[in-house]
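Retro notes, item 3 of 5
We never archived the inputs for the cytidine-5'-diphosphate complex last cycle. Fixing that now. Sequence and ligand:
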Amino acid sequence: MLGNRTFTMIKPDAVAKNNIGNILAMINNAGFKIIALKYTQLSREQAGTFYEVHKERPFYTELVEFMSSGPIVAAILEKNNAVADFRTLIGATDPAEAAENTIRKKYAESKGKNAVHGSDSDENAQIEGSFFFSGLERF
Ligand code: CDP
Ligand code: MG
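Structure as it came back at the time:
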């Protein structure tokens, strides 16, 4: 299974703009299977823990505030080469630098409010998926 799963969130900006369905459709159309799915809202504390790796970065406080500001959709996705292929599908962190037909190019509004999260490694995909989902919630 290693290398076949990644974790994503549809961030509060994209949820607020009614783009949940559009983004899930792009994910499915790119060949990812949805293994787990949840519509929820993070507390500040939970968002802070999720992004703890960035806690020394200048954007951390703003990121935690934004990610707890409204509901998000969390999902575990399965596909061969899932982590790398999903990073390609979402595009660069800054939508101004994202390639055409990527999720961030189509739906992100700024480098901070950038529509989606995607894990950066197999190890983090496992950690992040387990932050949101128990074994009973994966299919
Ligand atoms: O999400 P990604 O892996 O592309 O970027 P990151 O470097 O891991 O940063 C995590 C998140 O922090 C980004 O998706 C942005 O929402 C936010 N960020 C920001 O607000 N300003 C930056 N200069 C870099 C990241
Ligand atoms: Mg990252």
